[in-house]
Give the backbone structure.
Amino acid sequence: MDEIKYLKTLALLGCDQKPMKISVKELENDLEASDKTISRNLKFLEEQDLIARDISASGQIVQIKPAGMKLLSKEFADYKKIFHVKEQLELEGVVASGLGEGQYYISIDGYMEQFKEKLGFTPFPGTLNVKIKDYCLEARKKMNELPYIKIDGFSDGRRTYGASDCYPADIGGIRGFIIVPERTHYQGDLLEIIAPVKMREVLKLKDGDEVTVIVGGLC
């Protein structure tokens, strides 16, 4: 099934904002499918945790869940990239220590080769971690709508490594990328940034220092 088409149709009916009462009959024309097909696909979206449904004798209440909104945001970002839409946003935060995993993962050949090819530089083996201030958390959500570069997941024969999305970013004139793994230990308030240099040294940063991260500008 086309998950995006279903999610888009539900969003246009208001299911992105709040739970809405939805009739399968009213979806038939928009989705060009039978009521049985639509019901089956809505059940699939629910099983994939993309929507929430409350079904009763009088109908069903539907709302798109965060995972579903993330898919729509990615689709939106792809269209911006296709049509060369340049956007930027500013996120303010403080430098923070990470879990020490950045150096290990970035140095793995399967990632490093893609960084060189797709991002255009060999990253310093480590990340600069920036904890976003509370008043920037809403702006952080909009980052998902910006164009990004995809780093594919892979297997080395022993274990599988997940994919990541890379968003162009600038800190103090140093151009790098915010890397957002599909699987991460961090909440959405922490940015992991890679660059061709060790940003802590070049910018003379230490934990607690305030920084402004300019995100976007990828055409």
User: Anything to note?
Assistant: The chain has a mean pLDDT of 90. The longest helix spans residues 66-82. The two ends are 30 Å apart (CA to CA).
